[in-house]
Specification:
The chain has 92 residues and is of the alpha+beta class. The chain has helices at 43-59, 67-78, 86-91; strands at 8-9, 14-15, 20-26, 32-38.
Length: 92
């Protein structure tokens, strides 16, 4: 892994490398799309679990063209976990 940003920080922590989480989405017709979110360090591991175990079951069978409808439905279902943190990182 190579880093182009030597130090990245926010109000709570600094990271020596900027990382991202990539999510591949495939429809039942074989059309593939990609999503990406900032996922520093081991947070990506937690986001992976949220995507696979929480978000994926919520969207299976939905029409992928209805991105806004899907996003708002999942966002509203995750709101019980507040409007921040790893669930919303994973949704992004």
């Amino acid at each position: 892994m190579s880093c182009y940003v030597p130090i990245l920080g926010f109000s709570q922590q600094f990271y020596t490398c900027r990382t991202a989480q990539l999510v591949e989405v495939e429809t039942d017709e074989g059309v593939t799309g990609w999503g990406e979110c900032f996922a520093p360090g081991n947070v990506a591991i937690a986001n992976k679990g949220i995507v696979e175990k929480v978000i994926q079951p919520m969207v299976l069978g939905d029409d992928p063209v209805d991105r806004d409808v899907i996003w708002h439905r999942v966002y509203n279902l995750l709101r019980d976990h507040e409007q921040k943190g790893m669930p919303l990182q994973a949704l992004s």
